Amino acid sequence: MNANNYVEIFKALGDETRVNVIKILSKENKCACQILEAFNISQSTLSHHMKILTDSGLVVAKKEGKWVYYKINEDMFTQLKFFFEPVDAIDSSCMKCGQ
Questions:
Q1: What is the Cα–Cα distance from 70 to 26, expressed in whole angstroms?
Q2: In angstroms, rounded to a whole number, what is the distance separating the alpha carbons of residues 94 and 99?
């Protein structure tokens, strides 16, 4: 992934509703109507949020008849994990003062 991909992912996660959708989907796959029950928003607002999440690659949508089912894109979250792993390896001591 390149920097632009990460920017889109972090923008998608920059909204409380979308973070809560990710939390919901991390437990199990859900259809749009099940996700909507967890929020006090309109169906069109949820659709907007789900488009951002799917466009970023964090969520995968699958249409079955008139229903749309959503699930976490596990590959994308694995890539995010690898993005943050170098942070763990950084030596936090200062080169100048040694602290």
A1: 11
A2: 5
Q: Which pairs from 54-60 meet CB under 8 Å and 24+ separation? A: 55/8, 55/12, 56/8, 56/9, 56/11, 56/12, 57/5, 57/8, 57/9, 58/9, 58/12, 58/13, 58/22, 59/21, 59/22, 59/25
Q: Which residues of the chain have pLDDT under 70?
A: 86-99
- The Cα-based distances of 60 to 88, 95, 96 in angstroms read 29, 44, 47
What domains sit in the chain, N to C, each tagged with a CATH number?
A: 3-74 (1.10.10.10)
Enter the pTM of the model: 0.81
pLDDT value at residue 85: 77
